Amino acid sequence: MNAEKIKDYARLIARVGANVQQGQDVVISAELDQPEFIEALVEQCYEAGAAEVRVEWTHQPLRLLNVKYQTVERLGTVTGWEKKKMLYRAEKLPAMIYIESADPSGLDSLDQEKWGESIRLRWPIVKPIRDSMENKYQWCIAAVPGKAWARKVFPDIPEDEAVEKLWQAILYTSRADNDGVSAWREHNADLKRRCEHLNSLHLRTLHYKSSNGTDFTVGLIPQAKFLAGAEKTLGTDVVYNPNIPSEEVFTSPMRGSAEGIVYSTRPLSYRGTMIENFSIRFENGAVAEVHAEKGEDALKTLVNMDEGSKMLGECALVPYDSPIRNSEIMFYNTLFDENAACHLALGDGFVNCIDGFENYTLEQCRNMGINNSMIHEDFMIGSEDLDITGKTADGETVQIFKNGNWAF
Fold it and tell me: Which residue has the higher pLDDT, 272 or 171?
């Protein structure tokens, strides 16, 4: 990929994604892929006004070694310096940028039970700090092609060609292959119009039905609204785009209001482990049964992380006719695949979906029905023939999706 396109993409992430502010600190999390791009991104953050940009490198083989050789108690310990670091960030509120490039199957051999237990041990310390930062800072997830990821997506061509082809796909689906800033301005305007229409309907339930067997109803929170694209920080009103790319219009449903079964339509890479061809059945609002042809143990670990991981935190509407789906590429990466199909998310809900959430406490928002969990994992259920109907507060049935696309 030529240097100018890399620079433009880095600028889009820094200025439209995270929207780095003058004098703000920035933290970038990245794998050991594409260091040249990370260098370009750091420079763009500084040019946007950052006071300090810190890069935190990650590496899947090290994660495997740590989980293999450390005890679960050590893995689950939050050391004093770690806690001070988290508290410092909660005070300074840096812009957080997460650059994805990892091998979708790079952690297939991870001991999921051990890793999950270590996260549960850390959670009582991590949770209150995370809650104190809720909606107060900008964050953005974007991607660059790692070699192993590129080989997974394009297995039949040489590695260098696969990386270049994945670069092209990332830029196209991220609306960054030409004037990304203008493209995102138009895209956000379209998403905003769709949210306004959905919010005007005062929906109380959504019913999903597809020929693959999906037949599922979820309840919605009366005080909740649909959101999409750009968001604002609480208190400072800084506009940012948390996901590049993003095609979804989403809301957080009523905790504990879900009945029926859904079937996956795309694989899910969960913590570096592939989960494929799976189904999830809900009873009385919570997961009652899961099955998967591949990665079933990882799926069971996911839904048993805590009480909230068995319930839904998000319902996202994505048309089948979207740039990512039209690319006809299976990315094996949730950031992209979730924006190719309607999806649900198990786990934590979005407090800012509550209308006027800034006037309520976090506890009040959760009492209204926002789910609370240590995880938030999207999985794709959209298909070419998916129909979604909504029931309004007045009892009227409204067609939301028809044959996989918007009905309006």
Answer: 171
pLDDT at 273: 84
Whether residue 277 contacts residue 264, with contact meaning beta carbons closer than 8 Å, is answered with yes
Is 33:152 a contact under the CB 8 Å cutoff?
Answer: no
Specify the pairing of strand 239-240 against strand 249-251: unpaired
Starting at the edge strand that comes first in sequence, how are the strands of the sheet with 139-143 ordered?
52-58, 25-31, 95-100, 139-143
Residue 408's pLDDT is 87
Average pLDDT, the chain: 94
Among 179, 231, 225, 185, CA closest to 202: 225
The reported pLDDT for the residue numbered 179 is 86
For the segment 262-276, the average pLDDT, to the nearest whole number, is 89
Q: Cβ contacts of residue 354 below 8 Å, gap of 6+?
A: 221, 223, 224, 225, 360, 365, 368, 370
- Across residues 236-258, what is the average pLDDT? 95
Closest CA to 380 of 306, 303, 325: 325
Q: Give the integer Cα–Cα distance in Å for 333 and 148.
A: 12
Half-sphere exposure of 329 (CA within 13 A, CB side): 25
Give the model confidence (pLDDT) of 303-339 as tens digits. 999 999 999 999 999 999 888 888 889 899 989 988 8
Q: For residue 169, give both structure tokens.
A: 């796909």
**Residues 80, 81, 87, CA angle at the centre, nearest 5°?**
90
Q: What are phi and psi of 205, to 5 degrees?
A: -145, 160
If we measure between CA atoms, which residue out of 298, 197, 244, 311 comes closest to residue 99? 244
- Of 268, 225, 244, nearest to 378 (Cα)? 268
With tokens 């004037």, the residue in question is 179
Rounded distance, CA 258 to CA 253, Å? 9
What is the value of pTM for the model shown?
Answer: 0.86
Q: Is the pLDDT of residue 271 over 80?
A: no
Amino acid residing at 40: A
SS3 readout for 210-249? CCCCCEEEEEECCCECCEECCEECCCCCCEECCECCCCCE
